[in-house]
From TrEMBL, chains A, B:
<protein>
    <recommendedName>
        <fullName>Asparaginase</fullName>
    </recommendedName>
</protein>
<dbReference type="Pfam" id="PF06089">
    <property type="entry name" value="Asparaginase_II"/>
</dbReference>
<dbReference type="InterPro" id="IPR010349">
    <property type="entry name" value="Asparaginase_II"/>
</dbReference>
Amino acid sequence: MANAVPMVELWRGELLESTHQGHAVICNGQGEITAAWGDPGRVIFPRSSCKMLQALPLVESGAADAVGLTPAQLALSCASHQGAALHVGAVRDWLTGLGLAESDLRCGSHEPYDRAERDRLIRAEEGPCQYHNNCSGKHAGFLTYSRHIKAGPEYVDPDHPLQRAIRAAFEEVTGETSPGFGIDGCSAPNFATTVAGLARAMGWFAAARETGDARARAAHRLTRAMAQFPDFVAGEGRACTELMRAMEGRVALKTGAEAVFVAILPEQDLGIALKIEDGSTRASEAAIVGLLVHLGVLDPDHPAARKRLNAVQRNWRGMETGIVKLAPGFL
Amino acid sequence: MANAVPMVELWRGELLESTHQGHAVICNGQGEITAAWGDPGRVIFPRSSCKMLQALPLVESGAADAVGLTPAQLALSCASHQGAALHVGAVRDWLTGLGLAESDLRCGSHEPYDRAERDRLIRAEEGPCQYHNNCSGKHAGFLTYSRHIKAGPEYVDPDHPLQRAIRAAFEEVTGETSPGFGIDGCSAPNFATTVAGLARAMGWFAAARETGDARARAAHRLTRAMAQFPDFVAGEGRACTELMRAMEGRVALKTGAEAVFVAILPEQDLGIALKIEDGSTRASEAAIVGLLVHLGVLDPDHPAARKRLNAVQRNWRGMETGIVKLAPGFL
């Protein structure tokens, strides 16, 4: 098994402070690996980076169209949103429109990442609700599918028909039998695959067209929805949103916990998957920026890119303290 | 140069999700390395883990006694506190007692880590002030020394007499000429040394007694103050505070940003320094717990230890998702 390779470095003054190693694979639409770093066979949990795979049954079954989901709602079904008023309101309206309620969700509650909404809750002496969970859009999609097929309410149970449908789609598009699953932060099963398997899935998404079969058409719609509604996929200030805006709808991006990042590049017929061994998001964001610049689809001087790679670090008084850059030899 | 070695793993379900590598050294009071993992010669920034070194001039100069600093204030001078009411009030009282003000600090402001104080500020629509900075106790010590020697107000300037005194003390007790410095989050210079140098300094602190010279007596007082006032060194829920309480005053501990951790064990005449390559605090906390258990000074089943090593991870709904454990072969 190959080892992880150095990908990202944090320098302070003239000295190397911290280093990050990882694995990355680029696949084309035929599932062929066109470039790889580290160990393509490293088995990983994609975590939230595979939300567009988890949304395939919602779209290909016709459940999404049966209730008239909009592209913004499809983007939200693939989101790790930050619980801003925009996201909370959209999920609430979605469920209310289906005759469902917050209590039907099974994602749990956590304080929203969005500062304004967090402060509003604190001032109102309100706790967060399940709508604030970063995965509530995915769960709204889960509930929509589950209601469509008239399945039971415990939709995060690994034996629930929804999760079986997700596993089948996941294994087909990764081209691998999943070696197992873990329970994600939002309580849904998260199926494992290799970095190569995840990249293969992203390459397949990149190649999916409106003229394909039901699954391919679903993938095409989800990719377009994500790229066209980047504010619904994450939120203001976040990597996925800012970088998708910077690439003006040409690329769909998704981060996952523990430093996974994926990209779908339909114009290049390429998909990317990467995992930083140590789970550090600052490194996965810097590495995906590096790879997108390497492939010529992102301007390295765009503020959204600069913020994450070759980013000057400043302290509380605005003094320069260091810089985040790519490790020598990576790219 | 030796490589970092695997130290900590995060498992999800039955699969390895993320891994952390690092360097660790144990030194005795004579500066001899008694055990090492990874590269003892890795040059690091100790960050906040060297606050007891930065407090040496304050005590050995007589500045602390000239204004009657208490052991709790000495602990605060070595703290990365969480800006709770306890800490903010203590720093305010300290400076006010010296005829100084918040505006004399040069640490900058950031939102306090303490949840109750954070929420109080938000409800009051107040921004944080410099007292909330986790380093404000260290800076109160800096101001106390600077006032004592009648030096200028820009005490974080690397050429200020305070910083020159810190560098001299730092180089003596690490036994190394520092290869340079970086600017820390709080704007103070942070002098670099090797992991072995930092461990040597911790061994020297462990061996320091009341019967030694002025520097050794200062080290002895600072170690005792930290171990006896753990709530002033960090705060409720934090690793340094909870683990020092668990060891009932027998060991002084200090964390530093980018995953540095040190320990001073006077009864064993040993000091520990460790650095996780990727800067992850969850890993430095797990690794220091592992080393303290390994040396027989911490009960692995104490809740403060269990919270950080062999800790079952749970999601927002309380479901078990995984575990943090030591890498095979480390300890």
